[in-house]
Amino acid sequence: MARRRHAAAVRTIVQRSPAPVIRVSAPAPSRARRYGRRVSGAARRAGSFAASEKHTFTAFAASAILGYAEKQKFPLPSIGPLGPAATSAVIAWAIGRATKSTIAAHVATGLGSVSIYKFTSGQTTGFQLGEDVDGRMAAFDDDE
Fold this sequence. Notes:
4 helices, mainly alpha
């Protein structure tokens, strides 16, 4: 069987003249200075590593500052059953969420890690089970 011929679609194209070219003379840009050409590859890699681990160093610094403040008996805030580390972690976390600050979030990570360590190792975290709010041991009657 023979193929049928279909009429080709006709398109009309409007020809425009090209836009005029405007040439502007401007001074040539100065060459970019290449700083750090003498820095060795090891130093460059160390700087790159330090820049990529900023969050880790921030968490380490936060826990170190907390440890130093506790060692110097600096008065730290403590909310109810939370110790100073957990209270500081909650405050830093709230600041990080409110201000969208990654630094505050990393501080909260470091302080939260310290508070979890203290809780699981049995160190004092502030309010202990069986203590009164004033820090005295609560007396329980065993007669019942």
